[in-house]
Design goal:
The chain has 5 helices and 6 strands. The protein is α+β, with helices and mostly antiparallel strands. Strands 1, 2, 3, 4, 5 and 6 form a 6-stranded mixed β-sheet that branches. Strand 1 and strand 2 form a beta hairpin. The N and C termini lie far apart (50 Å).
Length: 123
């Protein structure tokens, strides 16, 4: 069994959850997600529950790992599971809060190439 992508499409965004080999979408409590808006902007997040954070810190192999936890695009959510995380994303969208909740990613190289082609077509 390998890693799996779980795609959720809504009218306002697409979200791809990167599930590990042993993750269940109903109970996953530590998962990365890539969110794409219709305008092409992309955002990333790592959803964690408090229990997942504690489990991570308790599994640290040295004191430093046990005393601190850092994740630049972390979103702490009370409930586990993809449906609960999608609800957080929906609420962020309703509040126009993607930019402050999630980490915006630069345009993909494919988008840069398409933009250059569009500019060439306009000349």
């Amino acid at each position: 069994m390998g890693d799996a992508l779980h795609r959720v499409r809504t009218p306002r965004f697409d979200a791809v959850f990167m599930l590990g080999a042993e993750d269940d979408e109903a109970t996953v409590d530590n998962v990365d997600v890539l969110v794409t808006l219709p305008d092409g902007r992309r955002f990333s997040a790592t959803f964690l529950t408090p229990a997942a954070m504690v489990r991570w810190m308790e599994s640290g192999t040295d004191e430093y790992e046990r005393l601190q936890f850092r994740c630049p695009d972390m979103v702490i959510t009370h409930q586990a599971g993809v449906p609960a995380m999608v609800r957080v994303l929906e609420m962020a969208d309703e509040r126009d809060d993607f930019a402050s909740l999630l980490t915006e990613l630069p345009p993909s190289e494919d988008e840069d190439a398409e933009g250059a082609e569009d500019a060439d077509d306009q000349e």
